Amino acid sequence: MILGFPTIDRAQPIGPAHASSRIKRSNRGARDAHPTAVPGGALAFQRMFTRLGCQGRPPQFAVEFYPYANLSHTIRLRDDHATARLSDVLRGAPLDVLEATAAVLLGRLYNKRVPHELADRYRHFCAAPSTERRIRRLRQDRARRPTLPARGRTHDLAPLFAELNARYFDGGLHQPALAWSARIWRRQLGCFDPGLDLIVINARLDRPGTPQYVVESILFHEMLHVKHPLRVARCALEIHSSEFRREEKRYAHYERARQYLKHMR
Questions:
Q1: In the beta sheet, which residues pair with residue 223?
Q2: Highest-confidence segment of 27-41, 56-70, 235-249
Q3: pLDDT tens digit sequence for 4-28
Q4: Does residue 1 fall inside a structural domain?
Q5: Domain total for the chain?
Q6: Domain that holds residue 156
Q7: Do 172 and 133 have their domain in common?
Q8: In angstroms, rounded to a whole number, what is the distance separating the alpha carbons of residues 34 and 164?
């Protein structure tokens, strides 16, 4: 599940949001939506500024809901003004969730530890079924797929999926849309977006020199994400559970592929 993470900006951007290099936001569905002020948002940020023990005089906060394509939030600090944009998935959320979100953003901005109860509150909101459903609806409306067909120049993902499904899932795993990335990603080798019901594999692997077992290993990993959705465990968002890791090692060429990828990077 693509939730996104806070983007911090101290006059200059430090880095993109979690999913921006893979699934870009479209104007469709969001072009008629505009940022709107968050009722009580500035006061919530001021309270969290004090609670986290941030140094100095608190900036003037402007807080607004923004029509992102996922659960992303950003904050920008310039001089004595701070502008925070919260995903409109939070519209209608309880005050304690808004405060927890403010704490997460300010913790990143001022390098402060976020109290466990606030971090846990935000994680539980993220993993709630109602939140997941809303994110999926928004992504279906706002996101687009900058991808290439499943049948690449060297490797065809569709028959690989079918073979892995039959061998490791008894043919019972739902098949999302399959695609190669439109561009070569620097970091990630694959991703599963449940909002778009889409598995995308890094086009860097669609080359004659890449062994099929390597592509299969990445595809198998993303198939396990289809089987094991994101969940809350031990007060944290669990992406790769112990069960996930055990199943991942069932792939016949797991260690061989891991060594290949280790040297490739």
A1: none
A2: 56-70
A3: 445 544 432 322 233 322 333 333 4
A4: no
A5: 2
A6: 147-264
A7: no
A8: 44
